[in-house]
Design goal:
GlnD_Uridyltrans_N; [protein-PII] uridylyltransferase activity; Beta Polymerase, domain 2; alpha+beta; 7% strand; CBS domain-containing protein; two-stranded antiparallel ribbon; Four Helix Bundle (Hemerythrin (Met), subunit A); DUF294_put_nucleoTrafse_sb-bd
C-alpha cells in the first residue's frame, strides 16, 4: 500500500458509476496484503493517513451517486443546501481498514417555506438518507449497530432541528443522550458546505461552556471502559470464545485514550474533531505538559497503526474482528508498546475522572 493516492486512483473513484464498483475499488485500495511484512506498529502508522483518504473519497462518491440515483428516479435534486456529517472514527479521521457507518445529514430551510414546502424538503432528505445508507452498505460499509446513520430521523434534519435535538440531549443527559452528545462532538463535514453545520456547532459550544453538570455526565459516560492490564503490567487477553488469546484494541486501549483527550479538549473550549488536533491544542495552550503530550501523541499514533493489524490476524472480513489483535502474533516491540499504551490509558482515565471537580473548583 503506497503512502498516498495517485491522481489515477482518485480519478478512478470519482468516475465510479455504481456502489458495486466502489466496493471493488475499496477492496483493492485497502488490500491489507502489502502490510503483512510490517510487524511493528510504528511501521504501520504512516498508512493510516492514506486509509482515511481512501474512505473519505469513496464515501463522497457514494453521496454523489445517491443524489444522482434520486434524480434518475424522478425524485429531483437537493431542494436546499445540505452537508453530510461523519461521526465516530470517521469524524476524527481515524478509521481502520474495515469501517462501519456513523453519519448524519444537516440542511438549511429557507424562512419563506410554508408547512407543505418544509415537509417536501424533509421527505427528500429522508429518501436521500436511505439511499446513502444502502449505497454505502453495498460499497462495503455496514450500518452502525447503534443506528447512527442518516436514514434515522435522530441523525438527520434541518439546522433548527439539530439545535433543538442537542438542547434536548443536554437538558436530559441520561446515558444515551450523553452518548449522542459525545458523538456530535466528533462531527466532521465530509461533503457539502461546512457553514451549514456551523450554527449547530456554535450552539453546542454554548451549551458546554461553564456547564459542570453536563460535563460530569459526559465524563461518567466513558470511564467504564476497562483497560485489560493486570497486576505487574500483565496484559489480560480474552479467555473464552472466538477471540480467546486476543485483546480488544478498540475498547481496551484506543477508545479510552480517545475519550480522555476529547474530555480534556471539551473542558478547555477545544472543539476540533481530530484527536491529534485536540492533542496539539492541549499542548499549545499549556493544558498538558509538552513532554506528556509528546508521549500521548507517540503512543496514539502507534495505536492507529496497530489498528491496521487486526484484519491480518483474522482475514474473515467481519467488522467485529476489526477490534481485536492476537497477542501471539505481535512482535516483542509492539507488545511492549501496547503494554505502555495501556498504562498511559489508565493514567489518563484517572486524570479525567477528576475533571468535574476541577471544573467546579
Amino acid at each position: 500500500m503506497p503512502l498516498t493516492l495517485s491522481p489515477e486512483q482518485l480519478e478512478r473513484i470519482s468516475k465510479a458509476e455504481s456502489f458495486q464498483e466502489l466496493s471493488l475499488i475499496r477492496q483493492e485500495l485497502l488490500d491489507a496484503a502489502p502490510l503483512r511484512d510490517l510487524t511493528r506498529a510504528g511501521e504501520l502508522a504512516p498508512y493510516t493517513i492514506v486509509v482515511n483518504l481512501i474512505h473519505d473519497n469513496i464515501i463522497r462518491q457514494s453521496i454523489l451517486l445517491s443524489v444522482n440515483e434520486l434524480a434518475k428516479r424522478g425524485v429531483g435534486t437537493p431542494p436546499v443546501p445540505f452537508a453530510f456529517l461523519s461521526f465516530g472514527s470517521g469524524g476524527r479521521y481515524e478509521q481502520a481498514l474495515i469501517s462501519d457507518q456513523d453519519n448524519g445529514l444537516v440542511y438549511q430551510l429557507p424562512d419563506h417555506l410554508d408547512a407543505a414546502g418544509r415537509e417536501k424538503v424533509h421527505s427528500y432528505f429522508h429518501l436521500l438518507g436511505a439511499t446513502i445508507v444502502q449505497g454505502l452498505e453495498e460499497a462495503g460499509y455496514p450500518p452502525c449497530q447503534g443506528n447512527v446513520t442518516c436514514v434515522s430521523q435522530k441523525w438527520r434534519g434541518s439546522v433548527e432541528q439539530w439545535i433543538e435535538r442537542l438542547e434536548t440531549w443536554a437538558t436530559h443527559p441520561i446515558w444515551e443522550n450523553a452518548r449522542y452528545l459525545l458523538l456530535a462532538s466528533d462531527a466532521r463535514v465530509l461533503w457539502g458546505e461546512s457553514a451549514i453545520f456551523q450554527p449547530v456547532l456554535d450552539r453546542f459550544r454554548q451549551m458546554l461552556t461553564n456547564n459542570a453538570f453536563l460535563m460530569s455526565r459526559l465524563v461518567s459516560n466513558t470511564l467504564h471502559y476497562r483497560v485489560p492490564l493486570g497486576l505487574f503490567g500483565r496484559i489480560l487477553p480474552e479467555v473464552n470464545g472466538r477471540f480467546r488469546g486476543s485483546v480488544n484494541l478498540k475498547y481496551g486501549i484506543y477508545l479510552p485514550i480517545v475519550n480522555c483527550i476529547r474530555h480534556y479538549a471539551l473542558f478547555n473550549g477545544i472543539f476540533c474533531s481530530s484527536s491529534l488536533e485536540r492533542l496539539a491544542l492541549l499542548r499549545e495552550k499549556g493544558i498538558w505538559e509538552k513532554s506528556f503530550c509528546d508521549d500521548v501523541e507517540y503512543h496514539f499514533r502507534q495505536l492507529l497503526g496497530l489498528r491496521l493489524v487486526a484484519p491480518l490476524h483474522w482475514e474473515d472480513g467481519q467488522y467485529a474482528s476489526n477490534s481485536y489483535i492476537k497477542l501471539g502474533e505481535l512482535s516483542a516491540d509492539t507488545t511492549t508498546m501496547a503494554r505502555t499504551a495501556m498504562k498511559l490509558a489508565i493514567r489518563l482515565q484517572r486524570m479525567t475522572a477528576k475533571l468535574p471537580s476541577v471544573f467546579r473548583g
